[in-house]
Specification:
By secondary structure, the chain is mainly alpha-helical. The protein has seven helices and no strands. Helix 2 crosses helix 6, helix 4 packs across helix 5 and helix 4 crosses helix 6.
C-alpha cells in the first residue's frame, strides 16, 4: 500500500493550481471579488466565456479593441497551456451561482 501512495505523489506535484497562477501573475492588478486596478474575477466571470478570458490573457490589446474598450492597461502573458487552463478555471470559479437553479420546483 505504501508503494502505491508513493507512486501517486509525483503526479499531484505537477498539477497546476489556478490560485497559484493568480498569485504569481494577476494579483498586482486583480482581486477575486473586490475592484483593484483591474476588474475583480467575480465581474470577469459574470461577463466572459472561457475563450474570451484566455484570449484577453494572451492578447489583451486586440481583445480590448474587439470588446470596444478605448484603452488597455493589461500586459500580454505567455503562460504554459496548463497555467492558462488553471487560471481560466480559477477565474470562472468566481461566477455567481444562479439562485433559481438551486431552488426546488
Amino acid at each position: 500500500m505504501k508503494k502505491l501512495s508513493l507512486l501517486l505523489l509525483p503526479i499531484a506535484l505537477f498539477a497546476i493550481d489556478g490560485k497559484k497562477v493568480f498569485e504569481t501573475y494577476c494579483w498586482g492588478c486583480h482581486h477575486q471579488t473586490a475592484v483593484a486596478f483591474g476588474p475583480p474575477f467575480s465581474e470577469i466571470a459574470s461577463k466572459r466565456k472561457a475563450e474570451e478570458i484566455r484570449a484577453m490573457i494572451v492578447n489583451p490589446e486586440s481583445v480590448s479593441k474587439l470588446f470596444g474598450y478605448k484603452r488597455n492597461a493589461m500586459p500580454p502573458f505567455q503562460l504554459k497551456e496548463e497555467e492558462l487552463q488553471a487560471i481560466t478555471e480559477y477565474i470562472l470559479s468566481f461566477k455567481a451561482k444562479d439562485s433559481n437553479s438551486t431552488k426546488a420546483k
